[in-house]
């Protein structure tokens, strides 16, 4: 999955209504993959940010999130605007179908809503050069999914069960 792209409006010049207007705002950009989501609320570390309730099964694509070894979903919500970061603010827990604040720091209003794509994706549909700005030693650079990353590169990241299982099998 590459950084979120804008969904196609339903009618000419009309955007779909926000799905989480009390939780996040979407800053839209005309630049490819330039849009992003930002928190409207403060939450403590580990708190549930949102339940994933509007998802539908989908084929592997840059807009989907991997939920299991061979399954993907379309989020069908503003959560699709949560971009990748190597220093994420959120965890997408596909086993619980919820989005949580990372365990090591709280979320503040105005923070970019990001997650570590290899935590859900074994093989990315569209690989990309990371520009998260997390800094040397933190930013992983080329993002192509957990399959191509070493155990050391993934150490310290929260990973979904299907990713942990595939990593164990790889050994």
UniProtKB/TrEMBL annotation:
<protein>
    <recommendedName>
        <fullName>SET domain-containing protein</fullName>
    </recommendedName>
</protein>
<feature type="region of interest" description="Disordered">
    <location>
        <begin position="1"/>
        <end position="25"/>
    </location>
</feature>
<dbReference type="InterPro" id="IPR053201">
    <property type="entry name" value="Flavunoidine_N-MTase"/>
</dbReference>
<dbReference type="InterPro" id="IPR046341">
    <property type="entry name" value="SET_dom_sf"/>
</dbReference>
């Amino acid at each position: 999955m590459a950084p979120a792209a804008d969904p196609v409006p339903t009618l000419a010049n009309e955007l779909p209504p926000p799905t989480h207007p009390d939780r996040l705002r979407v800053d839209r950009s005309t630049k490819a993959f330039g849009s992003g989501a930002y928190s409207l609320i403060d939450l403590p570390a580990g708190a549930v940010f949102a339940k994933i309730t509007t998802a539908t099964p989908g084929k592997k694509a840059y807009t989907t999130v991997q939920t299991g070894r061979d399954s993907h979903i379309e989020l069908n919500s503003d959560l699709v605007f949560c971009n990748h970061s190597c220093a994420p603010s959120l965890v997408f827990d596909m086993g619980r179908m919820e989005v949580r604040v990372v365990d090591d720091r709280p979320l503040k209003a105005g923070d970019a809503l990001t997650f570590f794509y290899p935590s859900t994706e074994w093989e990315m549909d569209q690989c990309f050069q990371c520009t998260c700005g997390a800094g040397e030693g933190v930013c992983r650079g080329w993002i192509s999914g957990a399959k191509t990353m070493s155990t050391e590169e993934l150490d310290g990241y929260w990973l979904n069960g299907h990713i942990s299982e595939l990593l164990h099998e790889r050994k």
